Amino acid sequence: MKIRELFDEKIVFSFEVFPPKKTSSIDVIYKTLDELGDLKPDFISVTFGAGGSGNSRFALDIASKINESGIIPMLHLPCINFTAEEIDSALLEAKQRGIENILALRGDINPDIPPVERFRHASDLITYIKGRGEFDIAGACYPEGHPDSDSLDEDIENLKKKVDAGADHLITQLFFDNEYFYNFREKAAKAGINVPIEAGIMPVVNKNQIERMVTTCGASLPRKFVKIMQKYEHNPEALRDAGIAYAVNQMIDLAASEADGIHLYTMNNAYVARKISEAVSGVIGV
User: Fold this and answer.
1) Which of 16, 100, 144, 198 is catalytic?
2) 197 Cβ partners below 8 Å, 6+ apart?
3) What is the pTM of this model?
């Protein structure tokens, strides 16, 4: 089933997982998938690994496992260092495995690896995939603006290119202040972007995690969020519970404000995903 069809029915609720390290067995993630599957998300997306450096074979195997469990999989596909032949190979294998939903990404730029000229931007990849006519295509978006853009307005102009190229729906980068999302959504609508936008939410459950994510994506930290982190940083269990509660409050507010969907960055933590799913089940119909 193509994910774009789900948005006509409900607030879409989905998860993201990532492959284990190359030195680990893929079985590490399969137990997590079993637990996440019990929560009945609308779909589960699979990254190519943290920082875009994961194992693509693992990603395809994990997406296949999700599909076999009866849940819709979405495969992340970064393009900056891929040739057209490599993209063709990935799409062909995805199709053969019954995977028909792709999150088209530029991917992280590695200063040690010259980018392939064929796909400089995610919009280039979306155009390429759309020409094959067989996939549902999602695009990434950034409520606070992409780190490489000079302004949010400029970033939204680039986002419009993704939508015009054929993106069927969008998933946002994580954010901790819903006002950024609402401002972004309003600006996107004014720019003529009329596809569904899922809000990306990450429950922060440890101090190292938040420091790493802020460094990676540059998300702003609201004052109340910082106070929570400071108060509980030396109490891991309390910080975990506070992080879950903060994410739940974000999601309830988003649902009340008619977000098209919520994409939960699970960090492969089934316990956290379960606690959040149970807390919002009456609000978003999990």
Assistant:
1) 16
2) 141, 169, 170, 171, 172, 185, 188, 259, 260, 261
3) 0.94
